[in-house]
Amino acid sequence: YQRRVRANNLSMPRKQQFSNKQKKQQLQEKRKRKQNQGDKFGFESDEEKSGKKEQAEVSKSSEDGRRLNAQPVGSTHERVNKYSLIFGRETKEEVDENLKLSKEPLPPLDSSRLESSVEDFAVGSLDLGMPKRGKWSYTMSKNKLELAEQKEFKEWCNALDEYYSELGGGSYYERNLETWRQLWRTLEMSDIVLFVCDIRYPTLHFSHSVYKYITEELDRQVILVLNKVDMVHPSVSVSWKRYFEEKFPEIRVVLFSAFPDEQKLVENTGRRLLKKQNIKKPGWAYGAESLIHLAKCHYDKKKEMKGETPTTEKPRSFEGEESDSEDYVTIGLIGQPNAGKSSLINGILQDKKVSVSKTPGHTKHFQTIFYSPGIRLCDCPGLVFPTIAPKQIQIVSGMYPVAQVREPYSVVRYVAERIDLVSYLRVEHPCVEEDPQPPWTAWYICFAWADKNGYHTARTGRPDVYRGANSILRLVVTGRLCVRLLPPGYTLDGFDDSYRDVLQELMGFATKVESEESEEDEYSDESSDQEEEMEKDQKSGNKFSLLQEID
């Protein structure tokens, strides 16, 4: 055995020496091959190289903002952050001013601040509300087309920044061109567009400029989906439905809820701190049948225009197959981040087919999935459309990641000015022993909430005020502490028979959910005690309680 081993070693060739200089040269050649990988022969013309260089400079100048949720990767994986959120940066003066404002006494509560209309948040010009895709042709090369789009997008960003500077302040809006390209592709391939809005902030989520662009220039049918109706009272949902149908007569409004059985419908929004619950597998969704019915009607009209007979059978349930032919209707879903577009698809399919997350910007690029051979769903990433709304309400509505907020105390003040935050959180004043006791401020609320929950710093052991403010904002974003807007002139009168039917249907739906979950413990002992006290206040001070007495 030893002789055979010795003979094999003698027959093997000796390793050649490989110096560090040769290794360096080998790596340089490998790097060049990777750079020229896009070209068929490994070479690029001078025109293409200059076009790429100019394209990189324009894209870098258009992304003059703060990139959120970016992954710390090397230079070989730069494309991984292609669809990350890009918003404008806050200056140090703005942060200091908001911090100073958070330490001032809170003004008295005013419920009229909750009422809003579409005009309250819309930008002055329709052209500034959305960047439009420029003219293109198939004769244009890829680099020329991308360079032209980036130049137009840069001009649009500069015009919008000038408009905000004239107003004395602006709001967050999407500055990533790649995300807007996903919206353009979704709108071009869609036959029906579902504009998904959170029922708590519909006027903030609805963009009039985008709506005009879809209906007038693209000639597409728009269906407004007011999602998450399980988070507000049925009267609020019906009032918003009536408002949009009167404001835009040609639009169709559908009320939707992807998780109707997860929790009770909050009878008086903002008066309860709901117990945290785990999101289960999606099941039956409220409003899914109405959406599919509208899609089927559009599909039948499309067949009639081609001279075919419309289908009389119901659409088949999702079985995972895709249609080879193009004889189907494409339903595109657009909206702001955290509006519930992906959850809406899962609710329609009654299964988790699309990934969802509470973090805005989770959906990176558009994705298609077939509901049936005749209906295709297209999920578009959420975009923050330009608006004149304050940044605080954008953070509260979930458009901006809470973990990335530099100064959350002014946002807590925005919430405390609209609901009785001190009573809902059941916190005690930090200066309770002082006489006279100083008035409540947003800083004191965050301090007291951090002290109550045991959020303390590591070294000094003092209450962590930033973590307390961050915790309050997460309660608002997730809906456990619900803040919502109301339509203008929110009153009890003016409901015709059609809206009374919708109201009765929603209230019957709420009663059904409450009866199914009556045996479960949905609230903690502390929240149940608070519930009894707030019901007394509701009977005495809620002027909308008469809606519950409608037969």
Description:
- The chain is an alpha/beta fold.
- Helix 10 links the parallel strand 4 and strand 5.
- The strands form two sheets. The chain has a six-stranded mixed β-sheet, with helices on both faces. Strands 1-2 form a two-stranded antiparallel ribbon.
- Helix 3 packs parallel to helix 6, helix 10 packs antiparallel against helix 18 and helix 14 packs across helix 16.
- Helices cover 42% and strands 8% of the residues.
- The C terminus is likely disordered.
- It is globular, with a radius of gyration of 28 Å.
- It has 19 helices and eight strands.
Task: Label this structure with key terms.
551 residues, two-stranded antiparallel sheet, 6-stranded mixed β-sheet, alpha/beta, single chain, 8 strands
Major sheet: 6 strands, mixed
Query: What is the general shape?
Result: globular
The overall strand count is: 8
Helix content: 40-55%
The parts where pLDDT drops under 50 for at least 5 residues are 38-45, 54-59, 262-272, 312-325, 513-551
Provide the structure class: alpha/beta
Strand content: 5-15%
Distance between the termini: 98 Å
Question: Total number of helical segments?
Answer: 19
Order of helices and strands: HHHEEHHHHEHHEHEHEHEEHHHHHHH
Average pLDDT, all residues = 75
Strands of the largest sheet, in order across it? 5-4-3-6-8-7
**Gyration radius over CA:** 28 Å
